[in-house]
Design a protein that fits this description.
- The chain is an alpha+beta fold and about 250 residues long.
- About 40% of the residues lie in helices and about 10% in strands.
- It contains four helices and seven strands.
- The longest helix is centred in the first third of the chain and has 51 residues.
- The radius of gyration is 37 Å and the shape is elongated.
Amino acid sequence: MLIYFCIASRTFAARVEISSVMSNNYLARGDDTMRTRTGFTLIELLVVIAIIAILAAILFPVFARAREKARQSSCLNNVKQLTLAAMMYLQDYDERFFHRYFPAVSSAPVKQHWIQSDGKGLLGPYIKNTQVYKCPSQLATKVYGYGYSDALNHTVGLAQIQRPAEILFCVDDTWGGRIAYLPARSDGSPNLPNWGANFANPAVQPMVWGENTPYGRHNGTVNVGFCDGHCKAMTPEVLWADATNKYYKDW
């Protein structure tokens, strides 16, 4: 019996020792495992940075277009107010348009333009907020953001226009001269040097097609007010109409 007890005791002690060793080994492996999972490897960090860079490259242009779309809506509202003011002017003056400045001679010492930042322009009585003269997308150095058609003046009556829903009254202008030049001159030749200035980036001469003109500052489009009072966005290329005055004059 004594011999049996001694053998059993040794067997139990051996089992306890083996169990203790296995437990220590397991804990050691667990600690190692925990240590390897407490941070990222360099490769993992580089992968995460690359993913963020790719997402930024995709999303930033989308955000930029969305912001420009909001500015375009504000600009379209400006064009609408200018167009409605012109319609009210026509009702008060026998449906006759106005020259872009008065007196209608360049030598006049004092001119009253169709819009003026001091609110004293020809359309001033119909527009109380001069901020509508400036497009939210234009350069801060420019005072005026819209041009009035060079085809319209005090000799043109609304009844003379055959297609008022297609004839331009005013449009986005990058030059800042408050005039919208015609695509074709009176002799039918292309008028790119002047017309291109209305849709240029940068707005400096010379105007070279495909380089600095035509340019639409609202995601490739410009806002246009028409002689029937409605407004919409169009591309400058459409307004060019192969160097014809299709959208500027039909009388």
